[in-house]
Specification:
Blueprint (H helix, E strand, L loop, with lengths): L6 E4 H6 L1 H9 L4 E5 L2 E5 L5 H5 L20 E5 L4 E5 L1
Parallel strand pairs: 1-2
Antiparallel strand pairs: 2-3, 4-5
Length: 87
């Protein structure tokens, strides 16, 4: 996991604001608690069902014979100002 930005707090700050930090982590933030030169990173556990799910785009792509997509293409229609399926 690559983290671009994480909030850094000392152990004393974390103790004072523990529940606020937990709310932030539950909301998706990553928090690094530093104590004695060591870092403890808090982040929300990912849901395997969310990672494995593949969005269904069938409702977005409205073309005939979607399963034969390798046999057709698109043509720009000047009349309608949109892409039209061909093939």
């Amino acid at each position: 996991m690559y983290i671009v930005h994480m909030k850094r707090v000392t152990a004393s700050e974390a103790r004072k604001n523990w529940f606020r930090l937990l709310d932030e982590v539950a909301g998706g933030a990553v928090v690094c608690i530093e104590r004695g030169g060591r870092r403890i990173v808090l982040r929300r556990e990912t849901d395997p069902a969310e990672e494995a799910s593949v969005p269904d785009y069938a409702s977005l792509v409205r073309v005939p014979a979607l399963n034969e997509a390798d046999r057709w293409g698109w043509t720009w229609s000047e009349d309608t100002g949109s892409l039209e399926p061909e093939g």
